Amino acid sequence: MRPDIIKMQPCLGQVTCIMKNLLLWGLVFAIATSFGVSGDDIQIVCEESSVHIKWKVNESMSSNPARLLLGNCFPSSFTNMSEGYAEAEFIYQLNDCQFKRMGTYKYLIYANTLTHRPLPKPNAPSFTYPMRCVYDRPKGWAPNYLTRATGVIQGHGELAFHMAILNQNFSGPAESNVFPLGSFIPIWAEVDQQAHQPLVLLLEECVASTTLEMYPDTLTYPLITNEGCLVEGKKTFSRFLPRYHSSSILLHLQAFRFAVGEEVYIHCKLIAWDPEDLNESRKACNYNKATEEWELLDNPKKNRVCQCCDSTCKGRVKRDAESAPQGLVLKSVLGPLTISED
Questions:
Q1: Are 174 and 145 in contact, with CB atoms under 8 Å apart?
Q2: Cβ atoms 259, 339 nearer than 8 A
Q3: 3-state class of 86 per DSSP?
Q4: Distance, CA of 85 to CA of 188 (rounded, Å)
Q5: Which helix (H) or strand (E) holds 85?
Q6: DSSP calls for 132-199
Q7: DSSP states along 26-78
Q8: Which of 74, 72, 36 lies closest to 55 in space, CA to CA?
Q9: CB under 8 Å to 66, separation ≥6 — which residues?
Q10: Rounded to whole angstroms, what are the CA distances from 181 to 178, 209, 260, 337?
Q11: How far, in whole angstroms, is CA 89 from its chain's centroid?
Q12: For each successive 10 residues of the chain (342 residues), what is the average pLDDT?
């Protein structure tokens, strides 16, 4: 077997995924699976911004090439072969054919489906074949989450911040802004460092309220207090998840009993900070229910900086982040979301 060809098993039919290029931003590979029909050969080549597919179809599928589809795209070419077979070829850009793009911790995934539709919609296809092109996530890439759950960010300076409520596997925006009591609300935040020195992103404070704007008499429910202590983790199983990059932070927030059934907003204060200068005033701390102790997300050997979470944290601050011209501090609002009792 050539080193640039991989046969994925198990599957119905022979699936060949060709590793085409080692790109500047990562190794490209394809994953394909099929359902319902055996004996079909499908060869997939994922390139930097396009896909090349050769699909060997049997006689029952080859009578009408327009019934063979990649997403909503017809074959780029169709060739009749001997012994009752034909070959449909698809050559398209990844922004064509209704490819769906998703981002995970490490990868960008472009997903689509090959189908054979002997009858037009709304009739179901007779054959479906999901395929994906998976790429290493480019450095600094951030998804454009344009949903109701996207944060309204107010900051200053040259750093670009992003914050959103995601779906349960952190691969895309939340599909709903309604969360049953006790379910998890995945929250993601990131700072685009660009040419700035390495930074670590921290959530210094987060509170829930029923209003988009905060006023002195606004009723709030504390989630993160004391300069980075996830106090909600003492009541629920809320916790910061391990980082995939210092400039991003992931929070698994368990839906809490506050303003159940009403619109809720989560107000957060974010800080981009020197990763070598974590201290009592610049930290991200989880509560470990098993040990009943606080733990530093970024370095368990320095858990001592979290010991103040049950009292008052007043650590050493190297510089005044509130007035820093680099724009190291911002406030973000997520929502509205609704916590239901269902």
A1: no
A2: yes
A3: strand
A4: 49
A5: none
A6: EEEEEPPTT------STT--EEEE-SS-EEEEEEB-TTSSSB-S-SEEETTSEEEEEEEEE-TTSPP-
A7: EEEEEEE--BS--S-EEEEEE-SSEEEEEEEE-TTTTT-GGGEEETTBPPSEE
A8: 74
A9: 74
A10: 10, 16, 8, 12
A11: 31
A12: 27 29 31 36 90 89 88 90 84 90 73 88 86 81 46 52 85 87 93 73 95 88 96 96 88 94 93 90 95 94 95 66 52 91 79
Residue 184 and residue 255 in contact, taking contact as beta carbons nearer than 8 Å: yes
The predicted pLDDT at position 308 comes to 96
CA distance 255 to 273: 28
Please report the pLDDT score of residue 287 as a whole number: 97
Asked if 131 contacts 31 with a C-beta cutoff of 8 angstroms, the reply is yes
Read off the tokens for 73.
């795209």
CA 215 to CA 303: how far, in whole Å? 34
Angstrom distance (rounded) from CA 209 to CA 188: 19
Q: How many residues does the chain have?
A: 342
Tell me if residue 301 falls in helix, strand or coil: helix
Could you tell me the two tokens for 36? 């319902």
Write the CB contacts of 233 (distance below 8 Å, at least 6 apart in sequence). 239, 286, 287, 289
Residue type, 324: A
DSSP label at residue 297: S
Q: Which of 30, 28, 39, 23 is nearest to 7 (CA)?
A: 30
Cα angle 162-165-168, degrees, rounded to a multiple of 5: 130
Q: Is 97 left (phi over 0), alpha (psi -120 to 50) or beta?
A: left
| CA dist., res. 102 & res. 111, Å (int) | 8
